Amino acid sequence: MTTNDLLTVIVTIVLGPLVGGFLFGVDRRLTARLQGRYGPPLAQPFYDFLKLWSKSRIVVNQSQMMYVYGYLAFTITALCLMALRQDLLIIIFVLAFGGISLIMGAFSVKSPYSNFGAQREILQMVAYEPILMLAAVAIYLKTGSFMVSDIFSKLQQPLLFSLPLIFVALLIILTIKMRKSPFDISASTHAHQEIVRGIYTEYSGPYLALIELTHWYELLLVLGIIGLFWATSIWAAAAIALAAFLLEIVVDNIEARMTWSWMIKFVWSTGITLSVVNIAVLYLLR
Amino acid sequence: MGLINTARMKSPWILHYDCGSCNGCDIEILACLTPLYDVERFGIVNVGNPKHADVLVVTGPANRRNQRVLRNLYDQMPEPKAVIAVGTCACSGGVFHNCYNVMGGVDKVVPVNVYVPGCAAKPEAIIDGVVKALALFAPANGKEAAK
């Protein structure tokens, strides 16, 4: 590992939450404006984080605490691998480990709401993991390697031109990952009367703050994967990721919450069809 | 501690518990979330979970049937926390005061920090009550709140 790599990792870990938290602030403000409200200040996610961090520690059991740290550590690792332009498959696997850590934490308590949320989170992972894998396969077909660095160095034109359908499928995955409508299923952000707060029900205080922090890293990582589709320069990648993020906010506000069975049907039928058709076309044109 | 206190005052998450109110005050509380009053401007979010909440907003009189639930919700909230009694019933028992099943105001069960009178309490009064409760999180007033 060179000094340059070390610097990249440090910058990612330090600046990651600042950018991610700011994006969440933009999300809450824009959502409020779309609903005809004024909305909270842009720094609201940071206030929430600091407040949660300063609250008293209530832990249901020891393992739950460990799983929160696991979720954070795996997600930071995945984001750092992305920043270092490493293997795309490894990034997807490490991200999945993080997700599973959160699920194990929610399963480690007795609350039925928490368990419900964890079950639904598993279903969400079942829905999006195949699409992420197919996206990695499609990128491999185009670049001849799973390395993110090759996407930046080898391609003459953006991936979006050769993988437009995969890109659409990944936009659906972005919505699931952000837990937004219509896939507001495991965390139940807008339906407390259904399963309280789903997977987050039993996390409180500093541990909920750590989960918020992890979300900021996670959002950046998923936006990073979206950005790969216009990786001619880092700014173009950031622009397309930002456009996708803004689109998600609009979708969140115009869509109703749907059920998990609809999610599986929709994501598997639409997502896998889009991905497979795109991969087939790539094969035929080779 | 300055930054932490600012964060606490800017991000009060509310847990709303209906302790047997007539729903008048509950409608007024929900009105606070609508575009007209939009309490999210102040970072106020209605969370349905005591473990995430900072401020417990109670409507209706405490009665023998649900005092256990109210106590349980209060105990599950992590420190620092505040309780607001919204409406005349929550403050003193209101028109139900001498009913055989009613214990009186919410303060018979949990310590109340702020009383918001009114039948039903106006949204402006409720927002004002939350702001008053937030002042308890500031260090200068913290000792008094602990008493």
Features:
heterodimer, A: about 290 residues, mainly alpha, about 75% helix, B: about 150 residues, alpha/beta, 5-stranded parallel β-sheet, two-stranded antiparallel sheet, about 35% helix, disordered C terminus
Word description of this protein:
The complex is a heterodimer of chains A (286) and B (147). With 286 residues, chain A is an all-alpha fold. Helix content of chain A is 75%, strand content 0%. In chain A, helix 5 runs parallel beside helix 12 and helix 8 (164-177) packs antiparallel against helix 12. With 147 residues, chain B is α/β, with parallel strands linked by helices. Chain B contains 6 helices and 7 strands. Chain B has a 5-stranded parallel beta sheet, with helices on both faces. A two-stranded antiparallel ribbon of chain B has the order 4-6. The longest helix of chain B has 13 residues, at 123-135. The radius of gyration of chain B is 15 Å and the shape is globular. The A-B interface holds A 28, 32, 35-41, 44, 46-51, 53-58, 192-193, 196-197, 200-205, 208 and B 3-4, 6-8, 10-11, 35, 38, 40-43, 46-49, 51-52, 54, 76, 78-80.
Topology:
The complex is a heterodimer of chains A (286) and B (147).
Chain A: H1 3-34, H2 44-53, H3 62-83, H4 88-107, H5 112-143, H6 148-154, H7 159-162, H8 164-177, H9 192-195, H10 205-227, H11 234-254, H12 260-285
Helix pairs in contact in A: 1-3, 1-10, 1-11, 2-10, 3-4, 3-10, 4-5, 5-8, 5-12, 8-10, 8-12, 10-11
Chain B: H1 2-10, E1 13-18, H2 24-31, E2 45-46, E3 55-59, E4 62-63, H3 67-76, E5 82-86, H4 88-92, E6 102-104, E7 114-116, H5 123-135, H6 139-146
Parallel strand pairs in B: 1-2, 1-3, 3-5, 5-7
Antiparallel strand pairs in B: 4-6
Condensed summary:
With 286 residues, chain A is mainly α.
Write down the overall mean pLDDT of chain B. Answer: 84
Rg over C-alpha atoms of chain A, rounded to the nearest angstrom:
19 Å
Q: Which blocks of ≥5 consecutive residues of chain B have pLDDT under 50?
A: 141-147
Number of helices of chain B: 6
Number of strands of chain A: 0
* Helix-strand makeup class of chain A: mainly alpha
